Amino acid sequence: DTLYWLSHIIYAESGNQPLTGKIAVGNVVLNRVASSKFPNSVYDVIFQRNQFTPASSGSIKRTPSEEAVIAAKLCLDGANTAGNALYFVNPRGSPNSWAARNCTHVATIGAHAFFA
User: Fold this and answer.
1) How distant, in Å, are the alpha carbons of 25, 50, 58 from that of 86?
2) List of the chain residues with pLDDT < 70
3) CB 8 within 8 A of CB 64
4) Engineering a disulfide at 68: which of 10, 32, 38, 51 sits with its beta carbon 3.0 to 4.6 angstroms away?
5) What pTM does this model have?
6) Secondary structure (DSSP) of 44-79
7) What is the DSSP letter of 102?
8) Within 10 Å of residue 35's Cβ, how many Cβ atoms?
């Protein structure tokens, strides 16, 4: 269940990004699971209201690529390219996002900026 949903959200959010970016998206989900500020399961984090657009739009149901599954497995094995980030945004699509205004920038990988 964890691998299933993690690979689906990685693909839906970062399917066109490099492997390091896919891992970073997975890191955000797992960092949220570990944080007392968010739900404590991958499924509940992904489907928390107003958090991940693919969960509400339905695009999370698309079959993930092999690389998205690999990224999810790597995340679950401890790979981390986003540090303690809890948020990510595409700054081109959301140049003045809540995360950019209120959180510390951790990394930019591909088209996503990551914040803690």
Assistant:
1) 9, 14, 22
2) none
3) yes
4) 10
5) 0.96
6) HHHTSTTT-HHHHHSGGGSPPPHHHHHHHHHHHTT-
7) H
8) 13
β-pair partners for 109: 112
Average pLDDT, the chain: 96
Amino acid (1-letter code) at residue 105: H
**8 Å CB contact between 115 and 91:** no
Nearest Cα to 76, choosing from 30, 9, 113, 111? 30
Which of 29, 54, 49 shows the shortest CA–CA distance to 41? 29
CA angle centred on 34, ends 33 and 39, rounded to 5°: 40
24: amino acid identity, one letter: A
